[in-house]
Amino acid sequence: MCGIVGYIGDKSACEVVVEGLHRLEYRGYDSAGVAVINGGGRIDVRREVGKLARLRELLEKSPVDGHIGIGHTRWATHGRPSAYNAHPHTDCSGEIVVVHNGIVENFLDLRRELETKGHVFRSETDTEVIAHLVEEYMKGTDSLEEATRQALNRLQGAHGIVVMSSREPDRLIAARIGNAGGVTIGLGDGEMFVASDIPAILEHTRQMVFLESREMAVVTRNGFRATTLDGDPLEKEVHTIPWDPVSAAKGTYRHFMEKEIYEQARSVTDTIRGRVDFQKDEVILDGIPWAAEDARAFNRMVIVACGTSAYAGQIGKFLFENLARIPVEVDYGSEFRYRDPLIDKRSLVLAITQSGETVDTLAAMEEARNKGARLVSIVNVVGSQASRVADGLIYMQAGPEIGVASTKAFTASLVDEYLLAVHLGTLRGVLSRGRRRELLHGLSLLPNLVGKVLEQSALYEDLAARFYRHSNFLYLGRGINYPVALEGALKLKEISYIHAEGYPAGEMKHGPIALIDENMPVVAIALHDHVYEKMVSQVEQVKSRGGIVIAVATEGDDFIRTKADYVIEVPEVPYLLSPVVSVIPLQLLAYYIAVRRGADVDQPRNLAKSVTVE
Ligand code: AGP
To answer: Is-contact 35 14, C-beta < 8 A?
Structure first.
């Protein structure tokens, strides 16, 4: 969950590293730190509790200078957020520094062992043992690489690590063990970078190499050499990242979340681009390896994901069952692997993950793989773990998503699921050409419809001004828009800290109706579809108990205006695509309410963008 950056080259290492950390602050923001080898060959460390701005202030008062350095922004797991628990952590001599993402599961045993050998610890973290272990192994070798390898082989758990030492000031050692998040090496001209995430170094290079589990690399200013943790040499593929640095910058928007919501007409277009042959009425998905025979052999599908991506999966159930006529089950990554799921080689398991590094989703994929299932992933981050381990892959094409609250990745996943459902339906012979034409025509209209929904910001600001002081919200939806209600509630909770619940509208009378009074705003998604009348009747039930109704309704629906207190109109859209349009008002409502409340929209408390711990 933490962010890591390393640099070696001609530039100021501190500047490159701190700027990289700035772009990674969405990963963790409890504390931050940087270490640089100075002109005298010694390591200077600066660490500060709180956000990166505090570290920058410290660096202004107490600068560090050098051409090789590492840095870290932290999401605390062991030890409370404080300057002394912030990374980088040093050994006893101050000659070895480490930044780390993950949890050293056996750190108490290692710490006791090292303390009996005379090592003195200065923090409460698990990470510090790594620096001391490297120091210990340096007693038996004159190679930082070898000492690090031995140290890493002692660690239990999953890790992304960078080690730097003043004893070998021309190199960084980077390593990855398990699924604690990525370790990316960026290739420059006479300079090299290491980072936990691509955006940290994207302004410097698009040539990147991704370490797999139990791989390490010695990085010097002129290149890198990769090996396994057993010391076997590796040939690594260099990937060219298609994202551009401008799309990873906030520009004139106040928050990344705002930018990412307003980017959705573009991101939906990019997700569709090149994937539909409108002449043949076919979907083209290059990353899907299955032929008709394979697709017909699948007898069930399981979608695994977490958080917002899991809600995208719940919508996927409607798409795959309807369009590919395959039974679908949806499960949270964190639950799937602990219930001995009934899957086998005829099961298709779809993992949805923006980051591609969510540890619970990766573990679910591993479980599916072990049981012989076929794996496909829908992933946003290029080169991430989930994109590498599946048999089939569809990139979201949403571009970098930096705001902790996921928005454009959600709508992009819905479009990808729709494409995959049409593709599987075609392969399985259950979609006629006429039906495909209709489905793909609907898809072609989507970017324009999304653009229209984004035109009404004044309406949301007004609603936010009316409702930002409320402490509870209820979100109701039915059918394919029930998961949208869940997503709307999640958005509000995570960025504004207002309690919100999403509920299937028909279930309201079985309990939540007891909550309704004049203080309870109810957001009801009541589009013109086959459950419209049912939704209107729920709206009436809320109104007759004094509740306040904000309806998301189809453009031109005058009837709903006679029932609801406030109406947000969205353009008419085919049922199976309606969540892409109906979720946007809920994203905007949550956003403007959070802004009104003065909340830290891009970095909500206790959250992190990629959840790489269990
Ligand atoms: C969304 O707003 C959340 N921040 C969170 O639920 C997120 O969707 C979840 O952690 C899954 O992330 P992933 O898509 O990167 O796997």
So the answer is: no
Query: Which parts of the chain sit beneath pLDDT 70?
Result: 1, 26-28, 77-79, 180-181, 244-248, 611-614
Compute, in angstroms, the gap from residue 356 CA to the centroid of ligand 1.
10
Which of 16, 355, 311 has the alpha carbon at shortest distance from 180? 355
Cis upstream peptide for 88 (omega within 30°)? yes
Is 92 a known active-site residue?
no
**Residue 306 designated active-site:** no
What are 34's strand-pairing partners? 46, 71
Beginning with the edge strand found earlier in the chain, give each strand of the sheet holding 172-177 in spatial order: 89-90, 96-102, 159-165, 172-177, 215-220, 223-228, 233-234
Segment 202-231, tens digit of pLDDT: 889 999 999 988 999 999 999 999 999 999
pLDDT for position 27:
65
Per-residue pLDDT at 180 = 65
Instruction: Using the atom order of ligand 1, give the atom closest to the CA of residue 409.
Output: 14
Strand partners, 536: none
Instruction: Enumerate residues lining ligand 1, CB below 6 A.
Output: 306-309, 353-355, 358, 361, 404-406, 494, 610-611
Q: Which residues contact 526 (CB under 8 A, 6 or more apart)?
A: 532, 535, 536, 539, 551, 552, 553, 557, 560, 564
Ligand 1 atom nearest to CA at 333? 16
What predicted TM-score, i.e. pTM, was given to this entire model? 0.79
